[in-house]
Amino acid sequence: MVNDLWKIMNSASELGDGSQHKSKSTCSYLLWTTLLFVIVLLAVTVTGTVLFMNNYHAPPMPDGPPLIRTNQGEGNALVTVERGDGSRVNIFIDPNCPDYGKNFLRLEGAHTSLLHSLTDHDSDLKGQKGQDNVLLVNLAEQLGTMSVHASQLKRDYDSLRRGQGNLGQELNVLQTEQGRLIQLLSESQVNMVKVVNSVNEALSSLQKETGSIKNRLKADLQRAPTRGARPKTCANGSRPRDCSDIYASGQREDGTYSIFPTHHPSGFQAFCDMTTDGGGWTVIQRREDGSISFFRGWDAYRNGFGKITGEHWLGLRQINTLTIQANYELRIDLEDFENNTAFAQYGTFGVGLLSVDPNDDGYPLTIADYSGTAGDSLMKHNGMKFTTMDQDNDHSENNCASFYHGAWWYRNCHTSNLNGKYLNGQHTSYADGIEWSSWTGWQYSLKFSEMKIRPTKKETK
Ligand SMILES: *[C@@H]1O[C@H](CO)[C@@H](O)[C@H](O)[C@H]1NC(C)=O
Ligand SMILES: *[C@@H]1O[C@H](CO)[C@@H](O)[C@H](O)[C@H]1NC(C)=O
Ligand SMILES: [Ca+2]
């Protein structure tokens, strides 16, 4: 179509040239003139028609340049080229990414040659057909814009390829990172296994420890009579009435045991002296360091107080239930602060032996048959009721317990005061310490005193 236009333009130009040199002959002048006019008219008409047709049949150029946009979320296409006629071309990134570069180059080349030829036509047409010229210039401009867009498209494509390359690199980096993480994970798994193993080791050593502790505990429990407080049964299966029963069952170690006197079936704890003079002694009183106050009232002396393994008073009630179940002897071990020791022993001992209600009767003392090294300081108290600071059962017009700071079977006061103050040996006050007058007088408070009872040997025979 463009070439056709080109030929027609040339022929019109030749016709224009030939009309100049046919004016010599006058007779044929009018004829030539008419002919020329007709030819020119024809040429103008043909040219106009062709131009009109050209304009009319011109390729349906788009109203604007093709639209090129990158998609952000619309389908999978990365780039969409929207043509003037409304159709779209979507460009996808394919994993294999086919090379469209050449196609773009060819498109560009076609556009460029088209532009050149149009520009040539444009220069030829200048000055002849202003309207067509404008039209063609517009066409050329649009083609130029299209070409620019095409090269833009190519650049986009190239950058997309580069992007793909970058994406590949990123992918490699990610894969490397993943590998590193997997390695870290496996390392931490190894560490976790180590931790679990060490915890297991700790647990098994703990179990071993527990086992050995159990064994030690078992052994301790078997040796428990030395310091334990378990009820102890006799060899013949009955419960021990006192420490002599426990001794008879084979126990030979000093310590705290539970005993069950006949008239005290619930039993109580007592310290058993299993070593002194044949053992089997039930301790009813001990002084050794002054750690316990012995200046107490009736209830305390009736029920007992102190620490079985240390200073204590077993209790008048307990002494009564023991001494009424058999004939008991009493031994009193004494020691001064020069480590001298002495003892007093009585073949008969009991409290409230004949009382219907020993508590109401005041636990009167029965004592007889002295022997020993400390001298007798108790026989004068025979038959006396017990007196405490709050219960005056003595023969004095005062309360001997209050006066001599103790509690005892006072008569018109005492020849012994083993529940007196712990005064640490010699003292200037009179008879208010731990006194055994037949051995150390009335102004020497003993370091150690222990009263203990057991059934008399006649009884056990
Ligand atoms: C059990 O033995 C003790 C001495 O250990 C004895 O006094 C008591 O009578 C015995 N009891 C019986 C039921 O044999
Ligand atoms: C008494 O015996 C104890 C140990 O039993 C000792 O430490 C102390 O020095 C002795 N005292 C005297 C006066 O011998
Ligand atoms: Ca009195």
UniProtKB/TrEMBL annotation:
The alphabetized UniProt keywords are: Calcium, Chitin-binding, Disulfide bond, Glycoprotein, Membrane, Metal-binding, Signal-anchor, Transmembrane, Transmembrane helix
**Where found, per UniProt?**
Membrane
Under the GO molecular function aspect, what terms does this record hold?
chitin binding; metal ion binding
Q: Name one GO cellular component term.
A: membrane
What are the residue boundaries of the Fibrinogen C-terminal domain, all occurrences included?
234-457
Question: Which residue spans traverse the membrane?
Answer: 29-53
Q: Which Pfam families match?
A: Fibrinogen_C (PF00147)
Keyword RNA-binding, does the record have it?
no
Is this entry keyworded Nucleotide-binding?
no
Q: What does the subunit comment say?
A: Homotetramer; disulfide-linked.
Record-linked NCBIfam families: GGGWT_bact
Q: What is this protein called?
A: Fibrinogen C-terminal domain-containing protein
